[in-house]
Sodium:solute symporter
Amino acid sequence: MMLHFAALDWLVVGLYLAVLAGLSWHFNRVETRSTGDYFLAGRSVPAWLAAVSVLATNQSAATFLGAPDYGYRADFTYLGAVLGAVLAAFFVAHVLIPRFYALRVSTVYELLETRFDARAMRWAGGMYLIGRVLSGGARVYLAAIAIAMVGFNAIDARSIILAAAVLMFASLIFTLRGGLRSVIWNDFVQFIVYAGAAIAVLVFLRLAIPLDTPALIDALRNAPDGTNKLRLFDFSTDPAKPFTVLAAVTGLFLLNTASSGLDQDTTQRLLASRDAKTGARSLILSALGSVPVIAIFVAIGLMLHIFYDRPDLMGADYALSENFSGEKITVFVNYILTQLPPGLRGMVTIGVVAAAVSTVTSALNSMSSVLVSDFYRPWREARGEVEDRHFVHAGRWGMGLVALAMFATAVLSYYWQQHSDMPLLEFVLSVMVFAYAGLLGVYGVAIFTRRGTTGSVIAALLTGFATVFLLQPFTFGPPGLAFPYQLCIGTAAAALVAALPRGKIPA
């Protein structure tokens, strides 16, 4: 039986909203007047704060809901696949970030203007915008599930639309005036909220399992289906598995390289540091910090396996309904709504919201910075000089456009995922692959070779997107090809097209 929110739950939610309102007032009381402050926080963000901000942005509602779902279904191999993220962080820190700082760019796509011309920069920026709208909207959809279930007692299309609209509006109001500085401090608060909620659930769930630690470990090592749910690394070469060691050092390495070094959502925080070394250090810290965070969420899934699937060990049979109002939900959401006591239920619910808000506010500011810096500003300055403050106002209008696009994608994701058997975590990560394939191919050629032209860059960006699309099971792709390998194929195709003509690096 589903439990309703109690007074204590609403009190927790009210305190959370009060903290957000206080932060919003603090950062919005003084209007930001320059684009350097608005989009890069005056390049004064310390390494530890940038690291927390990157970590909070990357560990979205997809991790909050998806990682426990993966742990329940499988094992610890998703944590083992973080190897790809750590390797990518060191690569980006020592190869890409120094190049970006040397050029003193506001967006990573300005590097292509130096290497080719403004058209190449705008096409890369446009591909980023498409990819971030897709992935950001998918993450909003995941958070909207939890909000709809709590607020509207349903997860039908109407409830998802209303929940997504509330989330987008709240995120837009928070970041509209304060810019990146308010986003980064918001990330810090949201990280404390959702990490604290996860730890509280893990402790509560562990106390509910009547086994000592050795017996619990033995039960996880010897699941009824014969699997070892404590397995950390999967050394198989099955192309249908997305979190093997092979996938980690190939497709997941590429995915995290794109996310950390070519995605303005992350690189904006690194460029906001005072120098390249500080930015690099913050990226590495965030990658290493993601290991214990992901471990906590996957461990929750393992505990849920014992709680729901091992009545012989629990001494009771707890009903697990995978449906709510006729719609499929994750095992973690089921546990939140049926087993958590008042107060903790409210805390975990705002944890889901906090993870989503952190991602949304980051996406709004980063996408707006690309719209203004790479598209609107060159067009406007070509028609006469204008004060820098004008582009701050343009950035706010850009956020509004981005918010509408992400909201539309969240609604689309509802229908998209309804027709897919893909787990939530894989669904969100696979959406990111579409835009990243072209960007990875283009930047690989631009940075490590002397080949390529503006025309081949544009063709490569389109080739990467089209290749990943054609590899989907609903088009012409082979069934069971996991998204890391789709990214590898798409990146290779894009790189080949980008490198076809002989180019010349400007002197």
About this structure: Residues 273 and 504 are 31 Å apart (CA to CA).
